[in-house]
Amino acid sequence: MRSDTTTPSTMPTIQYIPSSVNGATWEFCRYCKKVGHHFHDCKNLKKVLCFRCERRDHFHDDCAEEIRDGNPRFDKVPETIQEFLVQRDAWQTRCAIMFELLKENGFEAAAVDLRDRSPLFFHGPKTLDEALNQRKAWRTHCTTIFRTIKDHGIQGGATDAITTAYLY
Known about the structure:
- The chain has helices at residues 65-68, 81-104, 108-116, 128-151, 161-167; strands spanning 16-18, 25-27.
- The protein is mainly α.
- A hairpin with a 6-residue loop joins β1 and β2 (25-27).
């Protein structure tokens, strides 16, 4: 059995339970521990809580230092497509500010490379599951940008009044 640093080896993570009833596969919700739905569709999403940083916008296995370190805060995992769109716009605004910081500090090549790798979605999400997948892609992309900013030592540039007004 593989030992993981986030969960004890005696507590395996169950993603889904195959069911032989009518050949259907039922999924096991890792949040409420009930069978029949995926955790993104759980009715208890208002109560999502990260046990590492105690924020209410992600699960502990999605927690990253870049998410906790002063980046856009979300109160919860979105329950509607409209909530996702608001969150996505906040991430895109933050990413645009970070691109400008990279350019202003002489890291044009890094900014262009990161911009070229941004997630492309040809249509808006039609379901909440699509919205959550797009949200995850944008969060991953933006945390890469934040990590690049931090690696180049220009994190302090994000604390001016104009940038702070956009961020929070």
